[in-house]
Amino acid sequence: MKKTGLIVIDLQNDYLPDGKLPLSGIEAATANAAKVIADARAKGVTVFHVRHESLSSDAPLFAADSSGAQIQTRVAPIEGEPVIVKRHINAFRETDLKQQLDQHGIDDIVVIGAMSHMCVDACVRAAVDMGYPVTVLHDACATLDLEFNGITTPAAQVHAAMMAAFEFGYCDVISTQAYLAAE
After folding, report:
1. How far, in Å, CA of 28 to CA of 16, rounded?
2. Which CDD domains match (predicted)?
């Protein structure tokens, strides 16, 4: 029987509407994440919290020891849940995430969090490259508008493109409701 682990990526205060880098849809994504985390806890699924922290206390985002770098209260870890502090986009890079997954006997992974096109993307692709089957809950993830070469792409399109890429070649992508109903 496969053992699932839930990875919650960077649902930190700096991404909230009053934070330094507000994400489109972050409140709805966090509400869905809270449901998934509660369900995981009720079922004994290990929840791995990933928190980005900059080395400098005056960094523009996720500054060391700042309230912005803290995990949002409604999805905060409880005693005994692993918290992986990362300094790079990929939650596996220079962290003990892989060792934590192995230590807990995790065979497959569910990923939720922020930002869809950055840290969620990097974690999903790395996990798949390591051989983990991955499921992403699309409505428990959030991102922001992106600009390139004078063209602004709305967050909803950035998110949809990322989820489409995942579904095309990396992992299953489903809604929170479908995930909770399937268990």
Report:
1. 11
2. nicotinamidase_related
What is the spatial distance between Cα 70 and Cα 47, in angstroms, rounded to a whole number? Answer: 17
Whether 119 sits among the annotated catalytic residues: the reply is yes
The CATH number for 93's domain is 3.40.50.850
State the residue range of the domain holding 168: 4-182
Which has the closest alpha carbon to 91: 62, 50, 39, 54? 50
Instruction: Write out the E strands in 2-150.
Output: 4-9, 46-52, 83-86, 108-114, 134-142, 146-148
> Catalytic: 171?
no
Residue 129 annotated to the active site: no
pLDDT in tens, 50-80: 999 998 888 999 999 899 999 999 999 999 9
CA–CA separation, 134 and 120 (whole Å): 11
